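User: Teach me something about this protein's shape.
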Amino acid sequence: MNTPTSPSTLQSKSHALSLFNNGIAAADPYLAVQRCLSVENQKLILLLNSDDKTLYRTENWSKVHLIAFGKAACAMIKAAQEMIPAHLRSGIAIAVTNDENVTAIEGVEVMSASHPLPDNRGLNAAKKCAEYASLAQKNELVLALISGGGSALIPYPVDSISLADKITATHLLLASGATIQQINCVRKHLSQLKGGGLTRLAASADLHALILSDVLDDDLSAIASGPTVADATTFGDAINIIKAYSLWDKIPLSVQQHLEQGLHGQALETPKPGEPVFANTTHTLIGSNALSLKAVFKAAQALGYHTIIYNKQLCGEAKQVAETWVQDAKQCLENALDKPLALLAGGETTVTLTGNGRGGRNQEMALAFAIAAEKYKLDNDWIFLSGGTDGRDGPTDAAGGITDSNTLKRIRNAGIDPLAMLNNNDSYTALKNSNDLIMTGATGTNVADLQILLIYPHS
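Assistant: First, the predicted structure itself:
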């Protein structure tokens, strides 16, 4: 397709949204699970690498227990149920997901829980997952289907910490600007399931995890806080993270006491790499942000854009990242464009809450980009999209934001100061008034965020 030199804003937004949807489609969890499972001579075969059919695992398992948790849990367990012969299915099949992604599935106990902050429903679901994992015996397989969001959806704090205290600690970390890896380090050391805890419970059986990644670098120990993966972090690391964000005196006393007990060897550490508990545990990465970004790249080229990967692992404070991106875009434009340009990124930024508004990291980045584009006089026509592949950005019903060179004008015409909105972390209100929210609804997958900047030559 030949893209016009100066398409209308409506057409440009249509392009950006189409590219975003290509990225979401590439992370379809149902298809990803089915690609990794097959049956031969009544035996289940598990691909260890979704791109290499010569790497696989198979045993004479008498039963397969299905445990799924995360935003893609329903789609993943449905695919697994359909692929595994009835005589191998144990009758234990549980899926825990957020309210937006709940789907009834025959033969599966589907439980809903809160995200991003945990709730009692999640605690009850986590206890059931732990119970089912513990029931698995030798010559049986626990097939764990893991996707983003699992950290919040299956909270199972150690006995000395109440769920309310764990929620308080999680909320403080989420609002502090801590990275997802740092937050997960703390979560692991307050939990009975995270940081290899699920593997420890299922140690009598074999375990294999099919994992849909929502983190940078596809670090398996960080996805859903790594319930089936060895944890290299320590109680000391968790304490240092909390203190680095000046939260030690704010977190509940029960959390302080447990972490200090762990530091002195008085509480059980998470299982470490090389420990025998992982001898019968394997994993397959079935989808990731990198694969989705690759799909967006191909789609942008097909639309006629000169396409560049700006950053494969975009991270940092959302509004600062947006400002830097505008400055880098200006440098790209030092030589006149002869065709439309697409700059693409994937990753996960953070937001430090200083105000009391509504929004998420993607909406904040989209608004910040528009403000920085005006500040640095990015005078080419442009479209900037930042969206969460799960369809939900922070505690809002939007997936993110899609701004253009007239966004600030529309916000001001509504009687709103864009910069004041940004400073109050109220990007949702600002973008709602400019009609620049992305509303996809729950997508059933979660591979972090995608960013798309489209820039057009001057007419």
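Now, about its shape. Residues 28-156+191-233+270-287 form a domain with the Rossmann fold fold (CATH 3.40.50.10180). The longest strand covers residues 89-98. If you'd like, I can walk through any region in more detail.
User: That's plenty for now, thanks!
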